[in-house]
Amino acid sequence: MTEITEGKAKILIPDPVEFSREGKFDPAWSPVFYNPRMVFNRDVSVLAVSVISPSSVLDAMAATGIRGIRFVLEGGVNGEVIFNDKNPVAIELISKNIELNRITNYKIMRADANSIMHQLKVDYTDLDPFGSPAPFLFAALSSLRRKGVLGVTATDLSALEGKSITACNRKYGASGKRLNYSKEAGLRVLLAKIAREAAVQEKGILPLISFYKDYYYRLFVKTVDGAKRADKALEQIGMLYECQNCGFSFMDKECQVKCPMCGGEVNAYGPAWIGKLNSIDFLNRMKERLDKAPQINNPNSVKRLLDSLISENGMGPYYRIDVLASKLKVNMPPTHRLIDCLEDGTRTHFDERGIKTSKSFDQLIECMKNLA
Question: What family does this chain come from, according to its entry (predicted)?
Answer without folding.
Answer: Belongs to the class I-like SAM-binding methyltransferase superfamily. Trm1 family.
